[in-house]
Specification:
The protein has 10 helices and 11 strands. The protein is of the alpha/beta class. Bound molecules: adenine (ADE).
């Protein structure tokens, strides 16, 4: 997987991918991240990347020309040219990049994303993504989709936005990481890169852990197991993850729930499922509408709702 980030603040990414599993993935050549300074694609003395909006209004807008030039230097043709090239069976990727490019350390020279291209398909599976508050909400499902590609190019919006023609001409997706407005797309790009990279095969030490976490694989898709715990009951299945505990067994007067220490895996499994339901009902009730729930889950939910109603009536 290759990730290119186009930004007016390349320094923002210094160090951000140098921790934990992401650092290891980059170090082992499982992925490569290049950060590109948009100002390197300007031609005036002031290295201007923005301008006033047509029609008036607040703030400034990122100009289209530097972004188009940066994308061209990355070998990214317009969406339409890429689609035509794929239909004609030729690779739309040409050129490489040197101006304004920073490699995110650590890197290894052995990386070649072409090795990851699906057999029989000449063109790399590439998507250009614009990060903006107006985008579709980024989810784990989208992270999984992106993780299956060879290359993603993340264009970081700034100021009031990016000239919409860039979106129209080059961007396959416009993504937002949540319903709030950031000062720019850089944090969002880092979030997307992290969420995607950790899904690549070999990045997580325990491959099972990404299946069993919140927003993990749906139950039906889970095929690995945790010792002694039946797999079909253990997936997040569209629910939030259950609470986790480690040693000490008592901390600040709070004991780890007894059920987790008695070794009865069926009981543990039931307790965890109930906790998933409780947490999801409390924090993300919207997820329950789409979650795959068993009859037992429905009964438990009814019971939890009754308990909550009784509690509310008393307080
Ligand atoms: N730029 C500003 N706000 C954003 C958000 N919520 N997600 C992605 N990019 C952004």
């Amino acid at each position: 997987m290759r990730i290119d980030i186009v930004t007016i603040f390349p320094g923002f990414f210094a160090g951000i991918f140098e921790h934990g599993v992401i650092r290891r993935a980059l170090g082992e050549g499982l992925a490569k991240i290049d950060v590109h300074d948009l100002r390197a694609f300007t031609h005036d003395r002031h290295r201007t990347v923005d301008d006033r909006p047509f029609g008036g209004g607040e703030g400034m807008v990122l100009k289209p020309e530097p972004i188009a030039e940066a994308l061209a230097a990355l070998g990214i043709a317009s969406r339409f040219e890429r689609q035509d090239a794929i239909r004609a069976g030729i690779s739309p990727q040409t050129g490489s990049m040197s101006r304004g490019t920073t490699l995110v350390a650590p890197q290894t020279p052995q990386f070649d994303s072409r090795a990851l291209a699906p057999a029989g398909e000449g063109a790399l599976q590439t998507r250009v993504i614009l990060l903006s508050a107006q985008g579709r909400r980024f989810t784990q499902a989208i992270a999984r989709e992106l993780a299956a590609l060879d290359r993603i190019v993340l264009v970081c919006g700034r100021y009031e936005g990016v000239d919409e023609r860039i979106n129209e001409l080059y961007c396959d997706r416009e993504l937002s990481i949540g319903d709030y407005v950031l000062s720019g797309g850089e944090l969002a790009a880092a979030v997307v890169a992290d969420a995607v990279l950790r899904l690549l095969p070999g990045v997580l030490g325990n491959e099972a852990s990404r299946e069993f976490e919140s927003f993990g694989e749906e139950d039906a898709k889970i095929d690995s197991d945790v010792e002694g715990v039946p797999r079909s009951q253990h997936g997040a299945g569209g629910l939030l993850d259950y609470p986790h505990y480690t040693r000490p067994a008592e901390f600040s007067g709070l004991r780890v729930p007894e059920v987790l220490m008695n070794g009865d895996h069926a009981q543990i499994r039931r307790w965890r499922r109930e906790q998933q339901l409780r947490k999801t009902l409390a924090n993300r009730p919207d997820l329950l509408e789409r979650a795959q729930l068993s009859t037992e889950d429905d009964k438990l939910l009814d019971q939890i709702r009754r308990e909550r109603a009784e509690f509310d009536a008393l307080h």
